[in-house]
Design goal:
With 326 residues, this protein is of the alpha+beta class. The chain has helices at 14-29, 35-57, 60-74, 78-94, 98-112, 193-199, 254-264, 284-300, 304-307; strands spanning 122-127, 133-141, 144-149, 161-166, 189-190, 203-204, 206-215, 219-230, 235-240, 245-250.
């Protein structure tokens, strides 16, 4: 190990320094997700009521003072800022004002980066009822969250979308449903005092989505109404509303991810072994097969004692399939 004792720390690149600086600025600018944000929004509601009273009383100085306080408070809400900047982008695009468009886009991305519903990329593990624990991978198509199964079951196999959710704060006319209420944002789940202490927040935001269900063999696959429930930066759940089924998701450890990939994921793609790695120009299938072997070899070298409780990285209530929050 002596060859590693005198290593110099790797210098941060200019790009990384810029990113870290931007993240710090955004954290200072916006209210943190959770009780700080909920209290900010309560304050905005109170200021709005005071503004109406000032307008009705004709007190111009008081009105201007409240308006300024209201603008400052609203600017600290990342979700509201994201919505307003998206509207600004659309307006600038219609007016062909490229400079304004880019400015609104940068501001929108800064606000978006502070919203947990837009920071769920990557692998998650949840218990799919009698099918047991399964792994999903979350990606985004614009403001639409899409969850693919990495390990599947006999109903919805791996590689298929298990659920999706439209997270856009804007209402698009082409997406409006017949029922006007279906277009309205969902109110948050208000937690009891006991649940608030457990989860560190007083409420859980919800977003409309669609959940996939199917018969065995992926027959008669269809979508049904769903809800994405944001619990924080480390947990979320998705509910298939008509069948009252809810799955709680947490991040897997590296060891668990490798084990699940080997047992039910990419390992089945393996077709051969290699004396040397394939080149980057090889066929995609060959690269996938090689990656599968790498996963298997890596997992073989992990001491089983390190795994401990395979699913200790996520919390679930053993006696309940659906109620996680009370």
């Amino acid at each position: 190990m002596t060859e590693f004792t005198n290593l110099e720390p790797i210098k941060e690149s200019a790009l990384r320094k810029q990113r870290l600086s931007r993240e710090k600025e955004n954290k200072e600018r916006f209210a943190d997700f959770g009780n700080e944000l909920w209290e900010l929004r309560s304050s905005v509601q109170e200021l709005s009521g005071e503004l109406i009273e000032a307008i009705n009383s004709g007190d111009d100085d008081e009105e201007e003072s409240i308006r300024e306080a209201l603008r400052d408070a609203e600017a600290r809400d990342p979700e509201l800022t994201y919505k307003l900047e998206l509207e600004g982008m659309a307006e600038a695009e219609d007016q062909k004002k490229e400079g304004d468009f880019l400015k609104h886009r940068d501001n929108a991305l800064n606000a978006r980066s502070c919203l947990p519903q837009f920071n769920l990329e990557g692998l998650w593990v949840g218990k799919y009822g009698s099918h047991g624990y399964e792994m999903i991978n979350i990606t985004y198509a614009g403001d639409t969250l899409v969850a693919f199964k990495v390990t599947g079951d006999k109903n919805v196999p791996r590689g298929e979308i298990t659920f999706q959710a439209d997270l856009s704060p804007l209402l698009h006319p082409s997406n409006k449903r017949k029922d006007k209420d279906d277009n309205e944002p969902l109110g948050p789940i208000m937690l009891t005092e006991k649940a608030s202490r457990k989860w560190g927040t007083q409420q859980l935001p919800r977003h409309r989505g669609l959940g996939r269900v199917a018969e065995e063999g992926f027959e008669n696959a269809q979508w049904m109404e769903g809800q994405l429930i944001i619990i924080g930066k480390d947990y979320f759940s998705f509910a298939w509303v008509p069948i009252e089924h809810q799955i709680f998701f947490g991040r897997p450890s590296a060891e668990l991810a490798l084990k699940m990939l080997r047992d039910g994921g990419v390992a089945s793609l393996k077709a051969k072994s290699w004396d040397e790695p394939p080149s980057i120009d090889e066929d995609v299938k060959i690269l996938k097969d090689f990656a599968a072997q790498c996963f298997e070899k890596t997992e073989e070298n992990i001491d089983e004692d390190l795994l401990g409780n395979e699913f200790g990285c996520i919390w679930h209530q053993a006696d309940a399939e659906e109620c996680y929050f009370e």
